[in-house]
Backbone:
């Protein structure tokens, strides 16, 4: 399979997942500003999930730009990442239904961490394919991103632990914080350097 075909497949699945996110939003009954306000945590959970998946998509494309070759293993790693990603609408709906529920937040956090780990595994494996070892994106991934990716994973794991113990809604806020403080700024910095 070519890199382009796998990227197109990944794009299609992520687009479907992101669309399902909005379809899972509850509708107020009756429709009023007061009832819309009652659904604010649903909109909050949707917004975080949508932009987190969007950031992952942007970073995937940026990292894959210079990739020359993929392996069968890469295809299966991508499928694993998409499998975990397909749980995102369900996990988001659970959190939106009961925002301060430890089980819902922990499930959401487990999905976020599983997606992140499978994505890191795939990116790491791509760096071991001989044709890719000179690619700038692979070198950047290996050297510059390793520090902020370690911090990203540490904070997500901490958020999961807090959701299981003392701060029930910690995971959703951790994903928001990590996105705003680490992922988006590094994504923008990488974009500026690429130009």
Residues:
């Amino acid at each position: 399979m070519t890199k382009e075909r796998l990227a197109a497949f990944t794009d299609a699945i992520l687009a479907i997942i992101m669309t399902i996110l909005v379809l899972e939003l509850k509708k107020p009954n009756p429709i009023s500003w007061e009832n819309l306000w009652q659904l604010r945590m649903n909109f909050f959970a949707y917004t975080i999930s949508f932009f987190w998946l969007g950031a992952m998509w942007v970073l995937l494309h940026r990292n894959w730009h210079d990739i020359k070759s993929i392996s069968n293993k890469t295809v299966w790693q991508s499928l694993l990442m998409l499998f975990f990603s397909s749980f995102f609408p369900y996990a988001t709906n659970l959190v939106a239904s009961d925002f301060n529920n430890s089980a819902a937040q922990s499930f959401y956090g487990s999905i976020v961490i599983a997606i992140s780990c499978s994505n890191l595994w795939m990116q790491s494996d791509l760096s071991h394919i001989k044709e890719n070892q000179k690619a700038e994106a692979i070198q950047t991934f290996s050297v510059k991103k390793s520090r902020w990716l370690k911090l990203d994973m540490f904070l997500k794991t901490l958020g999961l632990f807090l959701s299981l113990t003392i701060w029930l809604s910690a995971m959703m806020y951790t994903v928001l914080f990590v996105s705003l403080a680490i992922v988006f700024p590094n994504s923008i910095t990488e974009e500026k350097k690429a130009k």
Notes: Residues 3-194 form one domain.
